[in-house]
Request: fold
Amino acid sequence: MKTAVVILNYNTRDYLKRFLPGLVASCKGQDAQVIVADNASSDDSVALMQAEFPEVPLIQLDRNYGFTGGYNRALAQLEADYHLLINSDIEVPEGWLQPLIEWMDSHPDCGACGPKLLSYAQRDHFEYAGAAGGLIDRYGYPFCRGRILQNIEKDKGQYDTPAHVLWVSGACILVRASVWKALGGLDERFFCHMEEIDLCWRMQLQGWKVTVVPQSSVYHIGGGTLPNESPFKLRLNYRNNLLLLENNLPATFAARDSHGPGGPQNDKNGGVPQNEKKARRKARRRIFVRMCLDGCSALVYLVTRRWSFYQAVVQAHKEYYQLRKPGTIPPHPHRPEGLYNRWIIPRAFAMFRKK
Reply:
């Protein structure tokens, strides 16, 4: 098939029943096949699929591998030009898929693209998880065109031009299969949350574009598997944010230095280029600052007696030290787009930056 449209399901039986018929109908005539991969759900998702959707291929995994491991194992079983990863809690309108495929067909330098992500509940507003494409600030805080912190914009057509961004949401992302394979898929240390940002960032360091294509839009409920107030989700976000920076900051700084005056310089013994050593030092300093900012957040949780949130931050840092490994630097790293070289949080609060 040209496009494998894959839902990774974990205990979202009701969403499958609600949204899968529309997804299947929308893919007819598109040389696209909808597949459901089940991450060993404990509800009756599999029974529902077998009883009501026998025409939809079902991949049953033997345990819950998370978003990362589940998709890695499911997509390894499929042959397609493109992989479309889509959440079960998304409603798709007619004609949503074609603009994404056409963009990838006509832009061979694009590694991944995604639609505008709109709110299912408030349909004229963007949705928190991805809005109109994602950026990231200097300390690793993600935000979106259409969403800064908890402030979500109304969709007035202000982002209706295709744009290169740092990342598009894993809730609905179309990935070139050859690029997915070359990069080894998702980093399974993440389990879930921010793994798509890592994938898109790694793509850009290798020279691929990541684009939001607003001619396509979908409606996302969000929080279908983990609620926003979950300490487990908070722990994943703090831990994975540090892993994200560890993976990508060294190569990002190296790309900046290599495009600067003089380009890369080898050391006197012909070893690691000086700009690579410098890049790794810069990355360590930046991550240290981020960890201090995390510590400030933990202190706020402690003072406000949100003990489970305080413990989540502490545990996240412990797990980061257990899981960390040096990020790789490609021979000729490319400079990513979508990096915001300021700290977005004080600008959002003190300067009332809402867009």
About this structure: The first helix runs from residue 13 to 26. Confidence is low (pLDDT under 50) at residues 260-272. The chain has two domains: 3-220, 231-324.
